[in-house]
Design brief:
By secondary structure, the protein is an alpha/beta fold. The chain has one domain: NAD(P)-binding Rossmann-like Domain (Rossmann fold), CATH 3.40.50.720. The protein contains 6 helices and 7 strands. The chain is globular.
Amino acid sequence: MNKYPLHEKIIVVTGGSGLLGKAMINDITSKGGKALNLDIDIKTDFDSGNIYCDITDDDSIIKVINEIASYFGRIDGLINNAYPRTTDWGTPFEDIKPESWRKNIDWQLNSYFLITQQVLKKMKTQQNGSIINIASIYGVVGNDFGIYEGTTIIPPAAYSAIKGGLINFTRYLASLYGKWGIRINSLSPGGIFDHQDPIFVKAYEAKVPLKRMGTPGDIAPAASFLLSDEAGYITGHNLIIDGGWTSI
């Protein structure tokens, strides 16, 4: 048995240049996988694993997935991780413009639909594959608005709607594609430290049972596990990694 759980697996990671994306790509690579970073601010180089893709553009998604399947011969895994959003993201709820709401739903939830659809066509032919949708604890529970008091942070309403939708979309897909040997799971991180307002960080850490915010290194190994054959009987699951936040 190969000691690398992702040995030679071709794994697509959208938004691989971001905070979580970089950690997931590094972890996949360390475990023997070929991680492909689909991002908007890079130039395409298949050998290095960097591939330009605008996930808010349907044609870009369809073109890239076909090119990857043609170049590598298969797609073994997909992590839907990209996080496109409008410049007014985080507007107070009563001030959100309908067009902004629609655009954020389209850019995030609908782009996940299309890239997943295109990848599933390839995986169905292969009769195997693993997909992970990056969701959030705020797709599972409501916000604790008290931890934001004294800061300028406004949790976006669309975020909860999108992440909650992704979790049940994951269950739908798992139910539908299991017979082809394809596994689809979601992964819901808690708060990840990214140099936020110290008032928020202190309030968050005071509440969460493990008394610290999460790190990308807490999330990436779990994603690699769900992609691997070690998780071969896990599908339709929402793996929560939150230091105990949703347990209280």
